[in-house]
Structure formats: C-alpha cells, structure tokens
Amino acid sequence: MPPATHVRTDTIPLDQLAPFPGNARRGDVELILSSLRRNGQYRGLVVQHVQPDGPLVVLAGNHTMQALQLHGPGPCDYRATFRGEDQPCGVCRNEPWTPAARCEVIICDDDTARRVNLVDNRANDIGEYDQDALAELLSYLDDDGYEGTGYTEAEVNQLAHAVPPLDTADALADTEDVYREQYGVIVVCADETEQQTTYERLTAEGFNARVVTT
C-alpha cells in the first residue's frame, strides 16, 4: 500500500473512535483539556479508516480524545476573560454538546499506522526551545494570564529571570575579556507558592531577584 492517503476532514462522535492499541505515550490529559477549554480544538485527530467497514482508530491525538471524553457532554460552566471580554468554553461553547472531535481521516496499512503513531509521539521529545523566543512569546500574554499555554506563572517568571548556564556565562566573559564579580543570596523556599511570594516581595523592594528551580 502507498503512504497514508487523506480521505476527508470530518467531525466524528467519540463513541465511533478507538484509541491506538498499545499507544506508548502517557500525556497530561487535564492540561490538554485546559487548552481545549481556553483555545478550542485547533488541531484535528489523525484517524485511520480501516477498509471496508472497520473501526476508526486514532493514530495521533489519543490524549486530545481522552480530554474531550473527560469534558463530557455539555454544557459546562467554564468561562474565561480575553481582553476584558467574557469567553465561553472552547469545547462546548456552554451549550448542549455531544462529545465529538474534528478528525483527519486517512487510509493506510498497519505498518504505516504504527509509524505515524510512533513519530507523532517521538517528534516532540527530540525538539528544543529557543528560550529567549519562548520568553518573548509568553510576555505578550501577561494581561490575560497563561491558561491554555501549558505554563504556570512561576514557570514564566523563571524563564524571564533565568540565570544563564555556567557555560553561557563563561562564554560571555570570554567574549568581553572582562571579569566582573557578582554577589547574591540564595533563598530556599518550601514550595512554589512561597517562591512566588518571595520573588514578588524582593522585586518590589528593588532587588534584582531571579527565580531558579532545582
């Protein structure tokens, strides 16, 4: 059989979809549901249509399917604020809703199906981030918070005030050919809440504080 062939894009009830058997990935379903409620379903599930009358098997997007199942039938009472305006749930729109997902239906053999499932899980694992670009993207969301991004406020603060790795600091020192001593105090906090409170207090007092998690 040739490589995967796209058949159609369709909205399919969840009770007509089956998870990929043996899917090795373990995703954060509640985090995905948070994104779906805030952002809606911005990417379709990739579903294998087994000919002629076989099941519809989810090759990519198994945890999105689980998150939609976790939401359950609508309406729900979720509301969000975007630029001062009230926004409904991105899944059910706060209206009666039968659990369903937008799907990209493909035809392929079982060998290709396994490869699609594996590479969809693996591709994210081996990627990297440009930390400066990530911090800048997150900075645009300050006014409305970070719900639906996968990041907490403490994590964003850590990115914005991260201490450069030692090799980066050494490289900068070599480039400038000047050594400047720096002095600081490390405050060990009991938990993330105390870390955030301490950081806000120190910055309010004019200290150049940085958030570090080890």
Describe this structure in words.
This protein has seven helices and seven strands. It has 214 residues and is α/β, with parallel strands linked by helices. The chain has a five-stranded mixed beta sheet. Strand 3 and strand 4 (56-60) form a beta hairpin. The radius of gyration is 23 Å and the shape is elongated.
Write the layout of secondary structure elements.
Elements: E1 5-13, E2 17-19, H1 29-39, E3 45-49, E4 56-60, H2 62-71, E5 79-82, E6 85-88, E7 100-107, H3 110-125, H4 131-139, H5 153-160, H6 166-176, H7 192-204
Helix pairs in contact: 1-2
What is the N-to-C succession of helices and strands? Answer: EEHEEHEEEHHHHH
Shape field:
elongated
Strand order of the largest sheet: 1-7-3-4-2
* Largest sheet composition: 5 strands, mixed
Residues in helices, as a percent range: 25-40%
Spell out the key features of this protein.
214 residues; alpha/beta; five-stranded mixed sheet; two-stranded antiparallel sheet; 7 strands; 18% strand; elongated
Short description:
With 214 residues, the protein is α/β, with parallel strands linked by helices. It has seven helices and seven strands.
